[in-house]
Amino acid sequence: MSNYAFKNLMDVEPSNGGPGEEIDVRFTRKHLDSRELGVSYFRYGPGFRTIGHRHEVQEEAYVVVGGSGRIKLGDELLELKQWDVVRVAPHVARGFEGGPDGLELIAIGGSRPEGGDGARVEDFWDD
User: CA-CA distance, 72 to 14, in Å (whole number)?
Assistant: First the structure.
């Protein structure tokens, strides 16, 4: 493991979508050479809803860096605006929805098992 790592989020190849798409996702954990944390970028277009997910052991925090939207935590909906920070315990199902101008987030994830521990939550946004 190195003493430090340096990476621009926009230099990371998108995992989903990309600029001009409805969704843009960039994961940096492997670029940071860290066992303890990951930092990722997410951008969702207006009205775009993510699939719900939860984790077994990985705690996450999300920082809204642009736009607005909502986060669904279990059955609770919270309105999000720029510079809001939300910490989510591993077992809590969560999903995001982009507001009128879309939603941009930085996600910080803690330690996780090799290969990840995320699990999809089907039918998460049933209204």
Answer: 24
Residue at 3 is within a domain: no
What is the H or E stretch that residue 46 is in?
A: none
pLDDT band at 67 (very low <50, low <70, confident <90, very high): very high
What number of other Cβ atoms are within 10 A of residue 124's Cβ?
Answer: 17
Counting the structural domains of the chain, the total is 1
Tell me whether residue 123 is exposed, middle or buried, using C-beta atoms within 10 angstroms of its C-beta: 0 to 12, 13 to 18, 19 or more: exposed
What is the value of pTM for the model shown?
0.90
| Separation of alpha carbons 103 and 71, rounded Å | 10
83 found inside a domain: yes
> Domain holding 57: CATH number?
2.60.120.10
Residue 34 lies in a domain: yes
Model pLDDT, residue 82: 98
